[in-house]
Specification:
CATH architecture: 3-Layer(aba) Sandwich
Radius of gyration: 17 Å
Helix content: 40-55%
Strand content: 15-25%
CATH topology: Rossmann fold
Bound molecules: NADP nicotinamide-adenine-dinucleotide phosphate
Order of helices and strands: EHEHEHEHEHHEHHE
Number of domains: 1
Strand order of the largest sheet: 3-2-1-4-5-6-7
CATH class: Alpha Beta
Distance between the termini: 35 Å
Largest sheet: 7 strands, parallel
Number of helices: 8
Length: 252
């Protein structure tokens, strides 16, 4: 086990599955005490179990990032139970399909509330703690879709992700003076159910991606979590307000 994050408390939203789970496992492997947050207590406790079985330290806090009181509780409970908050990975997100003129208001609200407002709420409470303790690291998981590339049928998601990226880069300038280093990781398609189109199997997706992406395949969750953990580490200490696109050449 490496000691890169030894003594640090790291919070990962959406840590019960996919990229968030892989990131939580890597941070724990690197010595952090990891708190995973999401709505589904069952998947969160599975992540905690995997980390503890590998010799790491982990905890779960059931959280809905769209609800202000739940997000406030996520941060205060992390600090109360573990004595601090040094690294926050704002990874929770959702996708829904619908062209601009057809998407209904409930879908729009859910997508924006989760990917943009929920990310802002998490940052607000994380930054509030970190600035009082003179430092910390925040990484928002956005997408190559939004700030870098457009995709018909995903307007709400793209608008929310581009907004969350702009928010993170603004906050990066606002709080680096308080010792808080904020960056973004923007993945291309990743091997989780989120990158499947409606009705698509993983084999269908592999065939589609072969033609769409220069690298010819989706990313593994490990490839994305490597980038997240690196940008959160001291090795990336001079990166501030950076948007690291990890997309197999999609936007090259
Ligand atoms: N997969 C891709 O191709 C891809 C590409 C680019 C960017 N991304 C981004 O990467 C991030 C992780 O996605 P993933 O691929 O790992 O998919 P995933 O396995 O579906 O992960 C999404 C996570 O977000 C959590 N979440 C959703 N709504 C939430 C809420 N209201 N409150 C708290 N947690 C919530 C979910 O947990 P609960 O259901 O338990 O709440 C889940 O653990 C997302 O932000 C996604 O937009 C993914």
């Amino acid at each position: 086990m490496s000691a890169q994050f030894s003594g640090k408390v790291a919070l990962v939203t959406g840590g019960g599955s996919g990229i968030g789970r892989a990131t939580a496992q890597k941070l724990a492997h690197a010595g952090a005490t990891v708190v995973v947050a999401g709505r589904n207590a069952g998947t969160l406790s599975q992540t905690v179990k995997l980390i503890r079985e590998a010799g790491g330290d982990a905890d779960a806090i059931t959280t809905d990032i769209t609800r202000p009181e739940s997000v406030a509780n996520m941060v205060t409970t992390t600090v109360a139970r573990h004595g601090g908050l040094h690294v926050a990975i704002n990874n929770a997100g959702m996708v829904a399909v619908g062209q601009v003129a057809d998407v209904d208001e409930d879908t729009w609200d859910a997508v924006v509330r989760t990917n943009l407002t929920g990310t802002w709420l998490a940052m607000k409470h994380e930054i509030d703690h970190m600035r009082r303790h003179r430092g910390g690291v925040i990484v928002n998981v956005a997408s190559n879709l939004g700030a870098h590339q457009r995709m018909p049928g995903l307007g709400a998601y793209l608008a929310a992700k581009a907004g969350a990226t702009a928010l993170a880069r603004t906050a990066a300038r606002e709080y680096i003076g308080d010792g808080i280093r904020i960056n973004v990781v923007s993945p291309g398609p990743v091997d989780t159910p989120m990158s499947l189109r409606p009705g698509e199997t993983t084999a269908d997706r592999a065939e589609r991606i072969k033609g769409e992406l220069p690298i010819g395949r989706v990313a593994t969750v490990e490839e994305i979590s490597d980038a997240i953990v690196w940008i959160a580490s001291e090795e990336a200490g001079y990166l501030v307000g950076h948007d690291l696109v990890v997309d197999g050449g999609s936007t090259a």
